[in-house]
Write a structure and sequence with these properties.
With about 425 residues, the protein is α/β, with parallel strands linked by helices. The chain is built from 13 helices and 16 strands. The chain has a 7-stranded mixed beta sheet with strand order 8-9-10-7-11-12-13, with helices on both faces. A 6-stranded mixed beta sheet has the order 2-3-1-4-5-6, with helices on both faces. The chain has a 3-stranded mixed beta sheet with strand order 14-15-16, covered by helices on one side.
């Protein structure tokens, strides 16, 4: 079960400020370079050694007053179904509004953890006024000022306590998720793989009745497909389609070992695809890129090589990813896609012998040592692979803090050139010897 924290509430109560505090400033820097837009709507928060996905629902509502009230209601409904923890934000300066009351009524009915966060409590008077919000009846009520940040640490502590770390030992069967934008062809892919005989399994521990897991058993291969395609076609979802599909994608991704990210050959890699790609990368999931509807493109003007080159430019620096051109409708290369996902999953579980790791990497370090910092030499003495459920390596050295990002990239490239980690994000940590 993944950990998804959704921040809900009326516009202008300060949801995005809280969101930015939760995910920390660090992430914005990484994403600026990769062409992802500034108004990021979801990211990773790391606190007290746990990490979880945070969704700012505020980024999804546009429109006039009467439209947004409906949109917010439907969002809260989707968030209650899809998220694990709900942060309900209100504003002390406006008091309890009718819309707040409505949202509160919806949230009281859920069995999930709800945190009521009263924002803009930044002086003594407002602290007194904030007490009226206890009347809403949420035992987890917190006062904060997201502007000055006072109270945020307490909220984070409280949320993190409810976050259940996902166990590193997954079941033996690999779990694949087909993710991508609406109408890219996820359902066609699923039907092509499973045919009509979809044996639907929902009673796998912790899955909701609407996250369907289908078991694939053919040609001596066995894996679970987490299906988020269109399990319930809700009438009212259309106004929040983007929000709904993002929630589904994140949900599927949290449960998966390998994400098959499907993009449309006709539109190429769009901003939304990039966001899903980066999130899968940050969550250390295996990734296979599927370019669907390739059969519809004119082959004289579009070569696979040019298309790949353009894709690699977009997803850089993490370009060691398999790209497979498919047609889900025509069933072209869908088994190649499956084989690729199985291989990526094996690589994700691959362990390098410590002796071999040190021999190869010490040679790479000797060839190109870390740059010295103010005349101080950085020496890497020992390398080991950490016992995580994805490839992570610790480099023990005398001054970890002086190692620059560019050198970290060099080490990652060296690891990739000696060991096959295609499709798998690698984490590198520098530890004090």
């Amino acid at each position: 079960m993944g950990n998804i924290v959704a921040i809900v509430g009326r516009p202008n109560v300060g949801k995005s400020t809280l969101y930015n505090r939760l995910i920390g400033g660090r992430q914005a820097i990484i994403d600026d370079t990769s062409g992802v837009t500034r108004d990021r709507k979801y990211g990773i928060s790391e606190w007290n050694g746990k990490s979880f996905t945070v969704i700012d629902t505020g980024g999804f509502v546009q429109g006039s007053d009467d439209v947004f009230e409906a949109a917010i209601r439907s969002q809260v409904k989707i968030a209650i179904e899809e998220a694990n923890i709900l942060v309900f934000m209100v504003d002390v300066t406006t008091g309890i509004t009718d819309l707040d009351e409505e949202v509160a009524n919806m949230l009281r009915r859920t069995k999930k953890d709800v945190f009521l966060v009263v924002n803009k409590v930044d002086n003594h008077n407002r602290l007194l006024e904030a007490n009226e919000f206890w009347s809403m009846g949420f035992e987890n009520t917190h006062f904060l000022s997201s502007l000055t940040g006072s109270g945020t640490g307490d909220v984070l502590d409280a949320i993190t306590e409810k976050v259940v770390e996902e166990p590193s030992i997954h079941g033996d069967i690999p779990k694949f998720a087909i993710v991508g934008q609406p109408n890219v062809g996820k359902s066609s892919m699923l039907n092509a793989l499973l045919g009509k005989e979809r044996n639907i399994v929902t009673d796998i521990a912790g899955t909701t009745r609407d996250s369907i897991h289908s078991i694939y058993k053919k040609f001596d291969k066995e894996f679970l497909i987490i299906d988020t395609a269109g399990i319930r076609k809700k009438a009212k979802v259309h106004e929040n389609l983007e929000f709904y599909s993002v929630m589904r994608a994140i949900r599927a991704m949290e449960e998966a070992d390998v994400c098959m990210l499907m993009i449309d050959a006709q539109t190429g890699m769009e901003a939304q695809d990039m966001s899903i790609f980066r999130l899968a990368q940050k969550r250390n999931k295996g990734i296979v890129l599927l370019v669907n509807k390739w059969d519809l493109l004119d082959k004289e003007t579009n070569t696979a090589r040019d298309f790949e080159k353009e894709l690699f430019n977009k997803i850089a620096p993490f370009t060691d990813v398999p790209i497979i051109f498919i047609s889900a409708l025509e069933k072209q290369r869908i088994f190649k896609a499956v084989e690729s996902a199985i291989e990526v999953n094996e690589r994700r579980n691959f362990r390098v012998k410590t002796s071999e790791l040190n021999t190869i990497m010490q040679e790479a370090i000797e060839k190109y040592p870390p740059p010295s910092h103010r005349g101080k030499f950085v020496k890497i003495k020992y390398i080991t692979q950490l016992p995580t459920y994805y490839p992570a390596f610790a480099f023990f050295c005398n001054s970890p803090k002086y190692i620059k990002e560019s050198y970290k990239n060099y080490l990652e490239n060296q690891l990739r050139s000696h060991f096959n980690f295609t499709g798998v994000p690698i984490s590198i940590f520098f530890r004090q010897k």
